[in-house]
Design brief:
alpha+beta, Immunoglobulin-like, 2 domains, 6-stranded mixed sheet, 9 strands
């Protein structure tokens, strides 16, 4: 009994620790260094209109104005409703760089994020943050973009594969239902009095008798046969 109690207690402790570990989020309130300046540019979407379902690229310029080097470790982001920035829909994928920017030097990296196709077209708040490490091992973070973007729906053109697939599925289901209905009512149709009467009338109709001599009627061969059979007919009469 005591072993079971300790096992349950250990399971509860591990579950509690796991939940707390999951609550530790990379986008925490890490302070900036104050000596790192950033610039951002969206080469494909400078108007900040991002098609849903497509990767968007952003070029990040990082300048080190300190007298010590910084290790640019990663970039991550998130997307939020404009009405409540404390709530986020989801996080963008974290990308690792591990590039060192020396004192009084600068570095440009590229980061990609995806505005999901499931999001309805409207304005959203996007936050992008770069994480870097000091020589002492302390981590810092700078949010280089925290602004509104416009998520727009991509035009599907003249051919919509999803709509075509749904149409084919509908036709397949319709054909299956029609086959099942025919298979169900076929025995009743065969056993109906009208079908039996039609079958009997068809069987009672005699087949036409074919006269094989019709095709030679009026020909020289017909006259020859008539002359050949004439003596036989006269001999029989005698």
């Amino acid at each position: 009994m005591s072993k079971l109690f300790f096992l349950l207690l250990a399971s509860f402790i591990f579950a509690f620790v796991g939940v707390n570990a999951q609550n530790e989020h990379p986008l925490t309130n890490l302070p900036p260094s104050g000596q790192i300046s950033t610039g951002v540019y969206f080469p494909e979407h400078p108007n900040k209109k991002f098609p849903t379902g497509e990767l968007a690229k952003v070029a990040v310029n990082i300048r080190n104005e300190a007298n010590k080097a910084y290790n640019i470790t990663a970039i991550m982001g998130s997307i939020h409703p404009i009405s409540d920035p404390s709530v986020y829909f989801y996080n963008f994928t974290q990308q690792i760089y591990l590039q060192v920017v020396k004192p009084d030097d600068e570095l440009t990296v590229e980061y990609s994020f995806l505005v999901h196709r499931e999001l309805p077209p409207r304005d959203y708040l996007v936050a992008l943050t770069v994480f870097y490490e000091e020589p002492t091992g302390a981590f810092r973070a700078t949010t280089f973009f925290n602004s509104t973007i416009d998520a727009v729906e991509v035009s599907k053109g003249l051919f919509d594969f999803q709509l075509f697939f749904l149409f084919v599925m509908f036709l397949a289901v319709l054909a299956g239902v029609a086959f099942l209905m025919y298979d169900y009512i076929e025995p009743y149709v065969k056993a109906s009095p009208v079908a039996v009467k039609a079958k009997k009338s068809t069987a009672a109709t005699p087949a036409p008798v074919r006269n094989d001599d019709e095709w030679v009627s009026g020909t020289q061969y017909a006259k020859f046969v008539k002359r050949r059979d004439a003596p036989k007919a006269s001999s029989k009469s005698n």
